[in-house]
Backbone:
């Protein structure tokens, strides 16, 4: 091949290679530069917008408006439907310094809260002096109370039951005192604190025991904290104490801590059964006669119900000596909630028998009282 033709072919081949190498750079250079956000990008200021949003053309059949959704919070239920808390609507008309009676079985706590440590649960109604309140917490009204060796908080009620059953304003007179004169010796129906001063805040000198005998030193009591206080002398474990003893309790009408003395031998009671609040018993008798449940201790007190044999009972107070009989305050354990006073009977025919009965003996009722606990 001639030398000129050879050179021409080399030049043509080199030119073609140069064109092929330059093609990618040319294509890349033809793309538009990237626009930074906010400078014309769709959906941002300066752009055309997305359909259906400001700056756009809208969805088909709808204007180009952004829908606005307003969230309305649902208020919480007060109290929750499943809660026993009644809500803080109206507190009881309790005055600071007044006296309240707390129902049996109610929790007294160290703070106004259902989760606060439990101080005590008394198995009978108790009187307390009100120190503070009301405080609303956890949908309960709470009252700070003092008495019976503690200071704590009690809720005034739940959805179905008031925990505070009676209210006495400060300075209200005490109940009528028992007819006791100086020099009389009486037997105690309960273990009772003997204090250095006639007050619930007085220093406790000793506890006079159940069935212990005390000597009264004055004719007239001193009224303080809603109680009649008696100056007494009592011997405990060989030591003679002189101090003040409350003669009764306001939480149980007509009841007293002491066995009322009398000179009539027919009115003197024998030592009562060794029962205490919380004990369970059943009505028992051997004379074939159902026993009356009275509204107060005594044969002449109104009759609430007539109880047949095996009706179950819970002891909640007493005993009180009236008409020569020891009366106990009891709660009938049946479908009809009722409380009253029942005589315990006498030796050989006690009306308060054991709670457990033979399986072949059936519990029967009168006056619509149903037996339970079988």
Residues:
């Amino acid at each position: 091949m001639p030398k000129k033709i050879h050179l021409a072919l080399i030049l043509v081949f080199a030119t073609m290679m140069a064109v092929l190498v330059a093609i990618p750079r040319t294509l890349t250079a033809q793309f538009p530069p990237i626009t930074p956000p906010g400078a014309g990008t769709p959906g941002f200021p300066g752009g055309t917008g997305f359909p259906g949003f400001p700056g756009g053309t809208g969805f088909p059949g709808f204007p180009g408006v952004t829908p606005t959704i307003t969230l309305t919070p649902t208020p919480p239920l007060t109290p929750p439907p499943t809660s026993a808390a009644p809500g803080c609507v109206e507190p009881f008309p309790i005055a600071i310094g007044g006296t309240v009676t707390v129902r049996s079985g109610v929790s007294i706590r160290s703070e106004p809260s259902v989760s606060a440590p439990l101080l005590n649960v008394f198995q009978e109604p108790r009187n307390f002096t009100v120190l503070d309140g009301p405080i609303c917490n956890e949908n309960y009204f709470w009252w700070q109370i003092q008495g019976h060796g503690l200071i704590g908080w009690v809720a005034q009620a739940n959805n179905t039951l008031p925990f505070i059953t009676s209210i006495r304003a400060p300075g209200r007179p005490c109940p009528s005192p028992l007819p006791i004169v100086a020099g009389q010796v009486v037997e105690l129906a309960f273990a009772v604190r003997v204090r250095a001063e006639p007050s619930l805040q007085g220093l406790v000198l000793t506890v006079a025991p159940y069935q212990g005998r005390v000597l009264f030193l004055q004719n007239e009591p001193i009224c303080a904290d809603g109680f009649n206080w008696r100056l007494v002398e009592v011997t405990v474990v060989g030591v003679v104490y002189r101090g003040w003893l409350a003669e009764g309790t306001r939480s149980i009408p007509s009841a007293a801590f002491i066995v009322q003395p009398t000179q009539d031998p027919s009115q003197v009671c024998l030592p009562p059964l060794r029962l205490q609040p919380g004990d369970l018993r059943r009505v028992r008798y051997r004379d074939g006669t159902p026993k009356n449940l009275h509204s107060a201790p005594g044969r002449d007190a109104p009759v609430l119900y007539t109880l047949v044999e095996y009706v179950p009972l819970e002891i909640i107070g007493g005993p009180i000596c009236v008409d020569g009989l020891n009366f106990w305050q009891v709660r009938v354990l049946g479908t009809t909630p009722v409380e009253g006073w029942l005589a315990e009977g006498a030796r050989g025919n006690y009306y308060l028998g054991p709670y457990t009965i033979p399986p072949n003996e059936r519990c029967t009722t009168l006056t619509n009282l149903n037996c339970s606990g079988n």
Observations:
- The helical segments are 3-29.
- The mean pLDDT is 74.
- Residues 61 and 227 are 86 Å apart (CA to CA).
